[in-house]
Amino acid sequence: MKKILLAATAICLTCGPVLAADPDTGKELYDEVQIERTYQGEHRTDIDCETCHDTDFFSRSDRKATTYAKLEAMVEGCNTNLDVGWFPEDVADVAAYMNREFYQLPAPE
Fold first, then answer.
1. Mean pLDDT, the chain, as a whole number?
2. Residues 6 or more apart from 97 whose CB is under 8 A from it?
3. Alpha carbons 103 and 80: distance in angstroms, whole number
4. What is the pLDDT of residues 86-106, one digit of tens each?
5. Threshold 0.85, pTM exceeds
6. 10: helix, coil or strand?
7. Residue 42 — very low, low, confident or very high, per pLDDT cuts 50/70/90?
8. What distance in Å separates the CA atoms of residue 72 and residue 76, rounded to the nearest whole number?
């Protein structure tokens, strides 16, 4: 059993750098992940956020989210209070989507 685990680890360690070394593949993979995260953020917003909030809620002039950190905190607050069940990366996806579509706040670096 130890030999199989050792062999599998060796294969993973030798193949990983080869795949990661190709800048075109890395950029392509990054772009695909970003597209998927954007889709997931939009999908979760459509399903969960819009059950309580009309889209006018996000674009009103007296909104409480004035920074990106506050926006993420408000999304996490809805997640927690309504027991939506999102993981931290889901909250980040929704906040990023909402920021791009409605808030246009400077994103953290």
1. 77
2. 38, 41, 42, 45
3. 22
4. 999 999 989 988 898 888 999
5. no
6. helix
7. confident
8. 6
Residue type, 99: N
Here the tokens at position 108 are 């953290």
Answer whether 42's CB lies under 8 Å from 49's CB: no
Q: What distances in angstroms separate CA 75 from CA 25, 69, 81, one per listed residue? A: 33, 10, 10
* C-alpha torsion 65→71→73→77, nearest 10: 80
Q: Phi/psi of residue 82, each to 5°?
A: -95, 0
Residue type present at position 67? T
DSSP for residue 109: -
- For tokens 């062999």, the residue is 7
Strands of the chain, DSSP E: none
Could you tell me which residues come within 8 angstroms of residue 67 by beta carbon, excluding any fewer than 6 positions away? 105
Contact 75, 98 (CB under 8 A): yes
